[in-house]
UniProtKB/TrEMBL annotation:
Listed name of the protein: HAD family hydrolase
Keyword annotations of the record: Hydrolase
Pfam name, any one: Hydrolase
Entry keyword annotation includes RNA-binding: no
One Gene Ontology term of the molecular function aspect: phosphoglycolate phosphatase activity
GO BP terms, alphabetized: DNA repair
Organism: Natronosalvus hydrolyticus
Record-linked PANTHER family: PHOSPHOGLYCOLATE PHOSPHATASE
Amino acid sequence: MVSEYDFWLLDLDGTLVDVEWSYTRSVFDRVGDRLGRSFSDREADILWSGLSGSRNAQLREWGIEPDTFWNAFHAEEDPAVRAQHTYLHDDAAFVGALEAPVGLVTHCQQFLADPVLDELDIRDWFDTTLCCTEETGWKPDPTPVERVMADLGLLESNARGVLAGDGANDVGAAWNAGLDAIHVERVGHERRGQCVLGDYRVQSFDELEIGT
């Protein structure tokens, strides 16, 4: 059982929302054309879902310069089309009913996250949002989490908080920032190839008794 927290922080992609596979596959086809290197379904899945942890480390392991990949990737992403192919997980609806302060901290870039929040009409679920950049740092670095906590006026407080996400980086960021961590396993342990620890490990938020 999850006791009532003073505040909640959440990841976006893979946690609250996901994108239809047809969109993901088409993006990687076009990125592959730009880079002169095709991506298998498994490789696209690993990078899109962050199944191996650090995407940049994975790219380097495959002999791909991360900056080159991301420049091509972002050039091929159409924010409006992506938003149209993004869906909200049914069990994520509890976030809109939370009475505690709520923050969003995501690796999804601002130009992509904004249309998704508007298309799904969930922007007002969050009291503050942060899209990670090189300047803020990336989860599991606690810095972006701490920035959101500061925006909520809770960084120096004794408030008890939790961060929920679908990846090991989310759990690491929570623990590094002194928060509890909920890992929601959307893809399954076999597809991920490893088991991610957390203070709570669920396949759906419906498994938790969440105080509001």
